Amino acid sequence: MTDPMVLEAQRWVNETYGGVDGYVSCDTDGSTGWATVLSLTQALQHELGLSPVVQNFGENTLNAVWAHRRLPDSETNTNIIRIYNYALWCKGYTGSPRADMWDTTSQSSLDDLYEAMGVAGHHNWWLWARVTRALLRMDQFRLVPRGSSTTREIQQYLNRTYVAGYTVPAMGLVPCDGYYARETQKGLLMAIQYEIGLPTSTITGYFGRGTTTALKQQQYTMERGDTGRLAYLFKAACWFNSPTYDGLSPIAFPWEDGKAEFTAATEDWVRAFQDFTQNAVHGMGTFQTWAELLISKGDESRPGTGSDTAEVITAEKAAAMRSKGFAAVGRYLDEHLPPGDPYYIGKKLRAGEAQTIIDSGLKLIPLFQYNGTVLANFTEPKGYDQGLIAHSKAKEHGIPPGACIYFAVDYDAQDHEIGQIISYFKGVRRGLGERGAHYQFGVYGTRNVCTRVSDATGARWSFVAGMSFEYSGNMGFPLPVNWSLNQIYEYNPEADPPTGFTDGTIAPMGLDKNVWRHGADPGVSRLNMDERYQDMIRQVQFVRRIEAAFDEYRETHLGVPESAQRDHVMTFFRHLKYYEGQWPHVLEPVPDPWIDFLSSKNLWLDVDFRWPNDPVAHTSVDFQHLMASCQGMLKYYSTSVNTTLGDGTGWLGDLLAFFAEWRNDYDHLGGSEFCELYLANPNKPSALGEQDLRADADAFNLAKLLHGSSGMKVSEALESYYLTENLDTSDLRKAHRRFRSFTGDRFGGTREAVASVINGALGNGDENHSSMMMTIGRFVLLRDLEPWEKPWNLGDELDGFVDGIAGKLIELANAEPEAS
């Protein structure tokens, strides 16, 4: 929208200074923007005697305003008065209708601006220089939409405490818009540098050697009970990094009305932050925590077990890396330049190199980058093409399906550029998705890039370029919730002096040290998975197709939330067999539009659809049973002695059917004998056969995985459970310990604990073990039994049955490998 006063300013400044040496004209469109305020900046430079004029309010301009030593109400140069009035109009304040006059309207607006900046009452010539610079920038001092009032409170505190009193001479006024961005981060760091005793002449807002040395001193460690300005600044840094995460659950920092005390609540949040960022967890503000709060690389000297390099990894290099604690290395799947090109660096993974890496005991982290250093490289067609190439190269090197390939954004992408980068990653997703292996994709880049790309495209993991801590995309942005690796230090053999990685047995090599997050991307530990996993891989791929279809379904069914994906996926797999009787009451009816939509996409099931092969047990799995049980146990998740309707959809429902089978057909057998003969016996079909019990255990274990990670997809849980090797144990997956996990997590792990839960579940005289709904459900499931055959009426006769169940579960658990 055209502002007549802004238009007047544009015309006046161009007409008046058009012939001045260095002057650059602005558009005369009546819209405020950088071009207008920079033209006004050049006008002010000319009036203060600077030549040639430049499009920057730098130190020379600041010093010239300072040396001029005149506030607007005492200014006699009408051109300068015009510049100040026009600057007010461009900032959104009301200047004098006569721009060559400084009147009460102008002064009132200036007073409002001072108050918004947090420096009300400080009208002096040395502060005025900084106010002038703020006027002639696009910084905002009013709270903007979606800005935080707490953040604005901190921004005003910084201006009032460290700028208004000329406390930190090099510090400028930070914006007061409620957003934590580069200028606010720089101001916060300068305030901290002042409080930890750095000479004012060395305070620059750069986290360098002096800041590191000072913060390592014991007196600057923050802990419970500390008060004062440094405690306030520490808490401000915590607020700016909030929320942190417990898994995927956000934890907001308790600001406590700006109270300048390190409280118990502060300590609790700091512990969660330290755990999330993989620093030492103790709840105190040590140097390591200060560094993590203030710069994206954190403490570069802390341990990092991940790495990445453009160099070929030989067995000797891998051994050297292992000896120094590295456990994974990122390598590039390809290079877009031919060997003869002057910029060719030979970074691509060589034939056989992946096997060398894995044989050495390192995990492989697949990377992909075709240039990726300027915005023009990021278009959806290029992303699609590169997704196809990455898929082809990954298969060529034997990288198994499900592995995550990180695509690089290797420059300081500005916020307004990320929309185009998101289009590129949508192309990547499409390219990978067209091929059968369905590799996951991740993003490498700044914190801002990683977060925005992940939110918009579903990138599985983020590889953060934390080492580039002065990138704008790393300043003022928290660590992504899905971070997997954080790049914090570069070993560089070409530095002066050289800092290449070596253990004395190899020539110095270029290597980046990364913090590798526990429980995140496991990397690649095996190439060319053998055939026993192919059925599982195909099933996970099929589940991913259903998940992808759900994303399309939401586009035409706007009332369906994204969080409903897991329920919709599991509902699809149960809709042919588990939809009548009690099921609509326990898990809601099957939504017909969802099933119809999948049918339109040629996605359907046969009523006898089964998962052909369990890669651990080597037998088929009733996948419909598994998903129905998992859905119920997730909805009513419990690990207490009390049983729920969720248990009723899985192990308890089968247990009650097994009990009814005993009383109806085998009541001549004692309970313990019946369990010994028929419980999970592959040669004797029963209501609780081997496949049923295994599916019940898997359903609970999968529900536990999904419950513990609200953002995890069903496909990811299946992959994690059946296909992903434990990092600490060769060739063992979670499914290898299915009954250990089931009996331990659901029943308490001992025979006595299992018996206690089973007794309560059967209602053996202790109704407190079950919810009212489960009590009703138990009556429904056992409705065909005569009253004297109900478990709560059997008395001692039930004990053998309960003991038989408990003994069998413990037996199955003990037959599995122990956790290492």
**Alpha-carbon distance between the two ends:** 67 Å
Largest sheet: 8 strands, mixed
Strand order of the largest sheet: 3-10-9-8-7-6-5-4
Helix content: 40-55%
Quick one: how many beta strands? 10
Structural class from helices and strands?
mainly alpha
Mean pLDDT: 90
Unreliable stretches, pLDDT < 50, 5 or more residues? 765-770
Strand content: 5-15%
The number of distinct helices, counting runs of at least 4 residues, comes to 31
Rounded Rg: 33 Å
Q: What's the quaternary structure here?
A: single chain
Shape: elongated
Key traits:
820 residues, mainly alpha, 8-stranded mixed sheet
Describe the structure concisely for a colleague.
The chain is mainly alpha-helical and 820 residues long. The protein is elongated and about 110 Å long.
Please provide a written account of the structure:
- The chain has 820 residues and is mainly alpha-helical.
- It is built from 31 helices and ten strands.
- The strands form two sheets. An eight-stranded mixed beta sheet has the order 3-10-9-8-7-6-5-4.
- Strand 5, helix 15 and strand 6 form a beta-alpha-beta unit.
- The radius of gyration is 33 Å and the shape is elongated.
- About 1% of the residues have low confidence.
